[in-house]
């Protein structure tokens, strides 16, 4: 085993967090902003890259290239390592950034590689390499939207990714096809063939409200799908937010603007 062997427990239902149990000198790496709490004696250290052997042995140019790839995914150049300097076991906890589920991924069971949405990675045992999976097909790059640039987790340790809303896990048989909204993909195993397909039809394209393209995932392999991508949640919040100088009256108000007048608020 190249990656550290860590034990874990996932708590909660809708807003989950994962508790990582570290033996002395064991390390867990995490994305900035995912930290929740930790025992005394665990040391936090900001590192350039993911701290994996692959990253450390790549030299300065390799590290800069790896960091540049992370910038493309919208992630920070740095990650945080949590080292247990105690003589006994200690625990560190990391929380999901929005309502959903945390998925434990044992990379040893997935032939050392798992592909996930660019913002899905939460934390992992030291030794897991966090990189990006570039699409080899032009169509994915032009029309893939959120699913264009995906992250890849490589190694033989435990990694944790998070999803939004309710999680669906599908085991695809050889040749079986699943069609998914690009933003609803959480991740899939490396054997799954991934492509972008045009929805088709003028009415669907203009008035369907679901975008022009969806992803096709062809088995064999395992696919994780989320019911509420963060981008969709953010769009709904922005659309429902009161405009500048407007009222914060609830969306379902029957009176609407007339209610504002009755309340003494004459702003529209």
UniProtKB/TrEMBL annotation:
InterPro entries: AIM24, AIM24_sf, Trp_RNA-bd_attenuator-like_dom. Pfam families: AIM24. This is TIGR00266 family protein. It comes from Flavobacterium stagni.
